[in-house]
Specification:
Elements lengths: L9 E6 L5 E3 L4 E2 L5 H17 L5 H35 L2 E5 L3 H5 L3 H25 L2 E5 L24 E3 L6 E3 H15 L5
Parallel strand pairs: 1-4, 4-5
Antiparallel strand pairs: 1-2, 2-3, 6-7
Helix pairs in contact: 1-2, 2-4
The chain binds zinc ion (ZN).
Amino acid sequence: MPKPSATMTIVGVDVGIKVLATLSTGVVFDNPKARDKIKKKLAKQSRQLNNKTRGSKRYFKQKLRVAKIHKRISDIRCDATHKATTAISKNHAKIVIESLNVKGMMSNHKLAGAVGDANFYEFRRQLEYKSQKFGSEIVYATMFYPSTKTCSNCGHVQPMPLSVRVFDCQICRISLDRDQNAAKNLEKLGRFVIKTR
Ligand SMILES: [Zn+2]
């Protein structure tokens, strides 16, 4: 079987809040779809918990119900993250990812930032042990690498506020999904980094 070319096996991974992860290959791992439905259920059950007398038998019963829904949400997310990290570490020799959750840090919404942070670290943790298992290598981009603001086509750097979802290059006029552009830049970085471990 012919060996895949070195550049083909490098992948840039942009871990997101709206989608789980965007790869430079064009593959997108969506957030689990069931989430909104379960979230509604969680809100309803949480409201009911607030209506119960604290410390009562009914209160504890309801509290358990709420805890179970929380667990289900985290299980669904964890399962999706496992599928994504397995696919990534299995199919690529070199994985380039940001070293810190820059997006979470930039986010104005406190909760979104905290959730994004937890997801990011779990994603990274899984990638780390799976890449060892599958023999792939992880390269970390420093937080100073402007993967979001740089045009992956011509290298031009321009401001990219969080609300802007599409990278429209002012120089070469290419138009790309924001996360896709970031992932492509991460992949490019991987081509210049020689084995780190
Ligand atoms: Zn450009």
